[in-house]
Write a structure and sequence with these properties.
It is a single chain. The protein is α/β, with parallel strands linked by helices and about 425 residues long. The chain is about 40% helix and about 15% strand. The chain has 15 helices and 14 strands. The chain binds pyridoxal-5'-phosphate. The site of pyridoxal-5'-phosphate has 15 residues, from α4. Pyridoxal-5'-phosphate (PLP) binds next to α4.
């Protein structure tokens, strides 16, 4: 990798993009606003790597924000897609591929007895909230500060991800009436949740959370937090919903709920189950899911939902993940990366904390520990920006925000991790 990085074509394309698309992107975090500098325009991706339009190669720790867990453009996925493509891109009618992926999801995820496929994580979360309300006959919802559940109006309260990155307290265009039923608590704070239940007796439909946070940076649940939420929701006749759009099939094949042994009532999925194509899903207890139209009265629909290409990519991706040793391998290389980054930060005199579970990791430039979004916000954002830029110049593509988790894949090798750590040592030595 050349330093300084030559990105002439990226700059030209992004300059043109800014005139025709808001901020030059179709999803805010991609614009590099929080780290400064110009975003890199990708040309192609393969395995653990991405190439930009100027021909620079990067080791990619974003993985399309999670889906690329088998490595980008895995040949099995691509070949299956080519075969599926010949049969058409969308049916708008039942297809057997939906059954196959649904059965795989039901077998894998402890809480899911029935599932509905949609086209994005946002759509899954919007739908699951409607279902929580329909089933309980209650309107209020508890979410946690820094957790992101897509861009639905009622979730844009103390949301993480792009909203955190851009420093928007909220979003204009979201009516107060819509968010008046959204109650928030700090992550890992059971007492705060208990208090909300006490203050709103019989009014709370349920609690939704990222069971491991990825959208405020990587924040795992404290011991007993998920279990405590399970008890509190039961005691109050409310539903517990795990938003596993990011963590599903990443933390373990059956998600955080399998790994931690806490079973929610409902679960949302996305990212990995689409294998790189647009998919989301929500599912859970049969009695609750039976309320969804046309089985029941809660309306939710989608022109392209369950489309054969997305189902095919999802099926192939899950098949690859079922091979023995998958999650052990992800854990091993990611632990090496996370521990290595922390060690280097220590040796080069930077306050930092880092964590990882399976193929998901984070690094905060703060002493830590980070238990919630307030803790995460103590990070040195200017230092993170310089770190991000330095890594980019050395061919390491990290999420362009302190408030995003990183992802490894089955295609990342020991050698890739070594290269990444060598780059980190150079950059941290000069921060
Ligand atoms: C990415 C994400 C979403 C939103 O999914 P989209 O497909 O981007 O709409 C929702 N919840 C969580 C936890 C996510 O990580």
């Amino acid at each position: 990798m050349t330093i300084p990085l030559i990105t002439t074509k990226s700059e030209e394309i992004f300059a043109a993009a800014q005139k025709i698309m808001p901020g030059g992107v179709n999803s805010p975090v991609r614009a590099f606003k929080s780290v400064g500098g110009q975003p890199i325009v990708f040309d192609r991706v393969k395995g653990a790597y991405a190439w930009d339009v100027d021909g620079n190669q990067y080791i990619d720790y974003v993985g399309s924000w999670g889906p690329a867990i088998c490595g980008h453009a895995h040949p099995d996925v691509i070949n299956a897609l080519k075969a599926a493509l010949e049969k058409g891109t969308s049916f708008g009618a039942p297809c057997v591929l939906e059954n196959i992926l649904a059965e795989m999801v039901i077998d894998a995820v402890p809480s899911i007895e029935m599932v509905r496929f949609v086209n994005s994580g946002t759509e899954a979360c919007l739908s699951v909230l409607r279902l929580m309300r329909a089933f309980t006959g209650r309107d209020k919802l508890i979410k946690f500060e820094g957790c992101y559940h897509g861009h639905g109006d009622m979730f844009l309260v103390k949301a993480g991800s792009g909203v955190a990155t851009l420093g928007l307290p909220d979003s204009p265009g979201v009516p107060k009436a819509v968010t008046s039923t959204t109650l928030t608590a700090p992550y890992n704070d059971l007492e705060a949740v208990k208090q909300l239940f006490n203050e709103n007796p019989g009014e709370i439909a349920g609690v939704i959370l990222e069971p491991i946070v990825g959208n405020a940076g990587f924040i795992p649940p404290d011991a007993g937090f998920l279990e405590g939420l399970r008890v509190l929701t039961r005691e109050n006749g409310a539903l517990l919903v795990f938003d596993e759009v990011m963590t599903g099939f990443r933390i373990a094949y059956g998600g955080v709920q399998e790994k931690f042994g806490v079973t929610p009532d409902l679960t949302t999925l996305g990212k990995i189950i689409g294998g790189g194509l647009p998919v989301g899903a929500y599912g859970g207890r049969r009695d609750i899911m039976s309320m969804v139209a046309p089985a029941g009265p809660m309306y939710q629909a989608g022109t392209l939902s369950g489309n054969p290409l997305a189902m095919t990519a999802g099926i192939k991706t899950l098949e690859l993940l079922q091979k023995p040793g998958t999650y052990e391998y992800l854990d091993k290389i990611t632990k090496k990366l996370s521990n290595g980054l922390l060690q280097i930060a220590k040796e080069t005199g930077h306050a930092a904390c880092s964590g990882q579970i399976s193929g998901m990791f984070g690094l905060f430039f703060t002493e830590g520990p980070v238990h919630n979004y307030e803790d995460a916000k103590k990070s040195d954002l200017a230092k993170f920006s310089r770190f991000h830029r330095g890594m980019l110049e050395r061919g390491i593509y990290l999420a362009p925000s302190q408030f995003e988790a990183g992802f490894t894949s089955l295609a990342h090798t020991d050698e890739d991790i070594d290269k990444t750590l060598a780059a980190a040592r150079e950059v941290m030595s000069s921060l």
